Amino acid sequence: MTSTQTITLESLPHNSNVSTARSNKRSGPPNLLGFDPANADTIIIASRLADAEVPDGGYGWVVIFACSTVTFWFVGTTYCWGIMQAALVARKLSSPSTIAFVGSLTCACISILALVNARVIRAIGARNSSLIGVGLLGLGEILSGFSTRSVGALFFNAGVIMGLGCSILFMVICTVPAQYFSKKRGIANGIVYAGGGIGGTVIAFAVNALIQELGPEWTFRILGLVTLATGLPAAWLIKERAPITTTTFVEWSLFKNIQFSTLFFAGVLATFPLPVPPFFLPLYSASLGLSHGVAAGLVAGFNFSSAMGRLCCGLLSDSIGPVNTLFLSLLLSAVSMLVLWPVSNSLAPLVVFVIINGAANGGFFSTMPTVVGTVFGSQRVGVAMGMIVTGWGGGYLMGAPIAGYLLAAYGGENSTLKAYHPAIFYAGSMALGSAALVLVVKLRLSRNPLKRL
């Protein structure tokens, strides 16, 4: 006796995320830091779909050059703080470490307010955020012109108000270009950040000439007026291609990814040494017996090299990969400070150091947003970049002042060149530590040194 059992087969429910992920695994761009496309979260999937539709040009180039223009002012001005610092120290306003603290506070605001500004941009849009940022930057500069006899007032106007403007603008240029470019994202970011290097080159000569002719007061005021006149029209041209929809304030789950955590701490270390050369080159030049004009020329050369480094690293990111490029830029920065700067006892070797370190310095800033946007998703770039930049706060705030304290402890700016060596070795060691962390990331991805990562 036999019996027959009927079995009904039911189709499994369709999971669009899985199918999309599998499709992207076959044809999507490579995911560098260990996110398996077959198991990617919805933000990674949405980012890949959005990146597949980006124009890689069109109005994106208008946005890129508008972002480059505002970067010209807020990065260029902060990178020329060393020239203003030397003038204020010569007036006996305060010590180099204290005046450096003012410039460091401007930069630190970028990190302290990164997550808040990412939220602001999402709420009011990139254009309105850019207009507010340029307005605060120009206003802070004008008010600083009335604060050159008071350290406290200078801290508020140059440190806080200018810092608020710089912090908003920095997050705008970190998040908006990724919406318009995918295959050319590296060179697009390179052009944006090169604007800061070119700005530092032009502003260095302008600030030195204005200080000699009109003094620091009118130098600040003229910078503020010109920033408003040229920066506001550029800010109006900046707009998103699509609304930023990420609602998470902090995505703590990213720290579960070892590569993200390692990159986070690499950025923490890297930002301690990066402000030291541009802030202290004018004082170091004076210790060599060089003129104010030569000192300004060195700062301008540093910033021009930074611009070229940002462009070159943008191109390298598109060819050899952003992780490889980030490692090379940090390693070059460390070697230049540990090997070249300590033996730069005349103009010629100092110029070589300025060119190499400036290029490496600029490469860090243009490469990091490319790493974040490419690896963790263009639709997550605001939150992820905000988290990473927040970690830079300690370096931005204390990096240059620590160098100033070390300089003072070993004889001060009026002593011999050996008084600068502890500060130089401190900066170089921090850069080397950061390069080592990026190397850890690279080795976790692949032990093949030639692999594009």
TrEMBL record:
UniProt GO molecular function: transmembrane transporter activity
Principal location: membrane
Any one cellular-component term (Gene Ontology): membrane
InterPro entries, alphabetized: MFS, MFS_dom, MFS_trans_sf, Proton-linked_MCT
Keyword ATP-binding part of the UniProt annotation: no
Transmembrane portions of the chain: 58-79, 99-118, 130-148, 154-178, 190-212, 218-238, 258-276, 282-304, 325-344, 350-376, 388-411, 423-443
Span of domain Major facilitator superfamily (MFS) profile: 259-453
Top-level taxon: Eukaryota
SUPFAM superfamilies, A to Z: MFS general substrate transporter
UniProt xrefs under Pfam families: MFS_1 (PF07690)
Keywords carried by this UniProt record: Membrane, Transmembrane, Transmembrane helix
Its membrane topology: Multi-pass membrane protein
Location relative to the cell: Membrane
Recorded family membership: Belongs to the major facilitator superfamily. Monocarboxylate porter (TC 2.A.1.13) family.
Full protein name: Major facilitator superfamily (MFS) profile domain-containing protein
Source organism per UniProt: Venustampulla echinocandica
